[in-house]
Structures are given as structure tokens and as C-alpha cells.
Amino acid sequence: MPYSLTQIDETKTAKVYGKNINISPKHSREICNTIKGMKIERAKELLEATVKIEKPIPFKRHYKKVGHKKGLSKWFAGRYPVKASKSILKLLNEVEANAEYKGLNSSRLKIIHASAYKGRVIPGFMPRAFGRASPYNHELTNVEIIVEER
């Protein structure tokens, strides 16, 4: 599967691709937009605090009917997407291990690309009244993260 960011220096970057992860595409998109541009250590601290329900993730695109959260700067709506945070935290650990394997300094890694989009759809049906059935599909998520030594 090709990455959406193509022109990168392979000697200074490390990347990871999580395919068909069982997390919400909307939650993972908001997390990726938040961690993009951060140092990898700061992003890991943020996601660990989100898993412990201490620090919210700002929801800037999917924010309808999302309440205000204390601790957000420059934005009002936020949530604590625990399941998606755990999965993306695991991917951050993997990309850090990939960078160390390539000989990059893990304390100088910066996330230059993080994106999440819809993956495979698992079809399902929900029984309804009078013998009918409505589709009840389950969406999986693809996540790609690229870090660069700076």
C-alpha cells in the first residue's frame, strides 16, 4: 500500500502503516490532526494522558453535539477517544522502533505526516420489524505515520 506522502528523504525518515485497525475513522482522524507536527515524545505523552482520561483531544471537524472540555487551548470541543489513542500509541512505538533500527536519534524525531482514513467495511445486517433487515456495517481504519529526524 503506497503512502500518501511521496517525496521524502528515506535516510532521515521512518514510517509505519496500520492497515484495517478496528478503531473509529473519525476519532483517529482527529488524533492524527492533533499529533501532526509534534515531537514523538510529546505525542506519546498526550496519548497516554488521553487514555487515562486526563487530557482531551480537540475535535475540529466532527464536533457536532460534542461538549466543551476543560484543558483545551484555542478550541472548545473535545473528547477522550481511548480505544483509538491506544492503537495510535502502539503505532508510535512501532515507528520509533523502526527509526532506531535505521540508526536515527529517537529524541529528535518529529511527526511530519499522520493521516487516517477509512479502510475495509465489514458488512452486517440488523433485523427489523416485519422480516426486513437494515445494513449495519462496521468500518475499519488505515493509519499512516511518518517521522523525520530534525
Automatic annotation (TrEMBL):
GO terms for biological process: cytoplasmic translation. GO terms for cellular component: cytosolic large ribosomal subunit. SUPFAM superfamilies: Ribosomal protein L22. It comes from the Archaea. InterPro entries: Ribosomal_uL22, Ribosomal_uL22_arc-type, Ribosomal_uL22_euk/arc, Ribosomal_uL22_sf. Pfam families: Ribosomal_L22. Keywords: Ribonucleoprotein, Ribosomal protein, RNA-binding, rRNA-binding. Transmembrane segments: none annotated. One of its GO terms (molecular function) is rRNA binding. Part of the 50S ribosomal subunit. PANTHER family: 60S RIBOSOMAL PROTEIN L17. Belongs to the universal ribosomal protein uL22 family. This protein binds specifically to 23S rRNA. It makes multiple contacts with different domains of the 23S rRNA in the assembled 50S subunit and ribosome. HAMAP family: Ribosomal_uL22_A. This is Large ribosomal subunit protein uL22. The gene is rpl22.
